[in-house]
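Note on ligand handling. Small-molecule inputs were canonicalized before submission; formal charges were left as drawn, and no protonation-state enumeration was performed. Where a ligand contained multiple stereocentres, the stereochemistry in the source SMILES was retained. For fe (ii) ion, this procedure yielded the string shown in the input block below.
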Amino acid sequence: MAHSAERTPTPTLAPGGHGRTHTAADDDVSKRLLDSAATLSYDPATEIDWDAPLEPGHYGLNPEWSTLYGTALWSEMTEEQRVVLTRHEVGSIMTTGIWFEMILQQMVLRDQYLKDPASAEFRFALTEIADECRHSIMFARACEKMGVPQYKPNQFVAQAGRAYKALARGELAYGGILVAEEVLDVMQRDWMRGENVLDIVRGTSRIHVVEESRHMKFARQEIRERLRGAGTLRRRNAAFGIAAGAYVIVTSMVHPSVYKAAGLDVARALAEVRASEHRRAMMRTSSRHLMAFLAENGLLTGPSTKLYRRIHML
Ligand SMILES: [Fe+2]
Ligand SMILES: [Fe+2]
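Structure output:
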């Protein structure tokens, strides 16, 4: 702590960050995250038993987290179909995770371009990129093991993601990152403890929850810093941009083809998911913490609130 205080005794202007201030106290947040990463990080290549056979009859995720749980269609499904469906659902969420982690790595790398390598912020940002790189490989291996194909976002969303990762900066970039991390976090806390959930999902979820809790702290800190002293217009724009990102992330998580993989009628399944009160309640639960943070930081404006309501995050 002492040397960082000596190095940056007064607020400094960080280059290229809309003239943002990055103080010694801000850097201490990253310093603590770096210490935590040094104490507890995982190598999924050795942490997970990749050769163990999948436990027959075990779900991909806790049934309550299935998009169809509680619907009429769910009650008509065989146990075997439920097992297949939940494995494809978790695989689809993992593939979306990989897609988003690629966007995130590029945004963070671009954000840190030519920043002070002596700062803890720079070092933690690179640590985070390294974490995400391991996570994506881990999710890829888990999908392969479960026999889940690559579920890609549709063309429009794929191009929107390409634009977002090229253009989003500051609070918008870290806002999108936080949304994806928060929503996944709540689900994965249940998956890692889920009875009758595949070991491979429990293990990958445990690793992800531990490492992502640091990423979320970092993202919250970055958002607070970037918005320090921001005017109303900038805050409003950020609020809407983050909500739009949330809309894309949440609506892309589970690919419609997962229902086909379980031998279901896709149109009927989608209609039942859309009308499911249970699903809405689960979405609201997984968004509670995120919504509290957004409200605290003036990021729940009228238009953004409308978007969050539409996807049942509020
Ligand atoms: Fe990750
Ligand atoms: Fe992350």
